[in-house]
Design a protein that fits this description.
By secondary structure, the chain is mainly alpha-helical. It has two domains: about 5-80, Orthogonal Bundle (Arc Repressor Mutant, subunit A); about 85-220, Up-down Bundle (Four Helix Bundle (Hemerythrin (Met), subunit A)). The protein has helices at about 5-10, 20-35, 45-50, 55-70, 85-110, 115-135, 135-150, 155-175, 185-200, 205-220, and strands at about 40-45, 70-75, 80. A hairpin with a 3-residue loop joins strand 2 and strand 3 (about 80).
Length: about 230
């Protein structure tokens, strides 16, 4: 049987929703982001497959996907290991996000419909509830939905691709940032201000506020990333 045929047979829908590769990718990503798989730890294909109750085939594909996101790195003859966080990586990731996210926000403002703004308001309310509850898993989902619900209105496929790749890596540092006292409520207020300027049609201010928002997150995370 060819590898492609084997993958097709094994990558059918998972009982939890989505394909097995998608499920495995999400499960392993979550362990990395929450510290269950610390930096430099080797991720064993067979062990991970046993833990998730599936064959090694979707695990192998999931590890490749996570390597492309920058969360894992390939080790010759040894599979994959978790990439360490670093101040240099954090700085580089946010240097690019500080250019691209405000641009996407600025472009989005003129395209936002009343239905878009209503959805963003609903997502922000859910984000605020998750923040107050300290539910990081739910907060993560709403946080991403909030940002990309806005960025998608930029109608720029390339921007979305680049930002998405940077977002996956920056989530490792966003996990650190909420631990800074008072940052959670502050982030909610920052999101509110961004949406207010979008609703007012002030594209320049919306982009500027997004840049400030990301800068604060970067600076808060920087305090908690060990120096090299």
């Amino acid at each position: 049987m060819s590898r492609a045929m084997a993958l097709e047979m094994d990558d059918h829908e998972h009982p939890g929703g989505g394909t097995r590769v998608e499920f495995a990718t999400g499960a392993i990503r979550n362990q990395i982001l929450t510290g269950g798989l610390p930096a430099n730890v080797r991720v064993h294909i067979n062990e991970t497959a046993a833990q998730l109750g599936m064959s090694p085939i979707p695990i192998r594909e999931a590890l490749r996907a996570l390597a492309s996101e920058g969360l894992l790195e390939a080790v010759p003859q040894r599979g994959y290991r978790v990439r360490p966080t670093s101040r240099a990586d954090l700085e580089e990731t946010y240097r690019l996000r500080l250019l691209l996210d405000p641009l996407a926000t600025t472009l989005a403002v003129k395209n936002l419909t009343s239905a878009d703004l209503t959805r963003l308001d609903t997502t922000l309310s859910a984000f605020e509830l998750a923040t107050k509850a300290g539910d990081w898993q739910i907060l993560r989902r709403h946080h991403r939905d909030l940002h990309f619900g806005l960025y998608q209105a930029s109608q720029s496929g390339w921007l979305l691709r680049f930002i998405s790749a940077l977002w996956e890596n920056s989530e490792r540092y966003q996990w650190l940032a909420p631990r800074v006292r008072g940052l959670g409520p502050q982030r909610t207020r920052e999101h509110e201000r961004i949406l207010e300027t979008c609703r007012a049609g002030d594209a320049e201010s919306a982009g500027w506020l997004m840049r400030e928002h990301l800068t604060r997150t970067r600076d808060a995370a920087m305090k908690l990333v060990a120096p090299p």
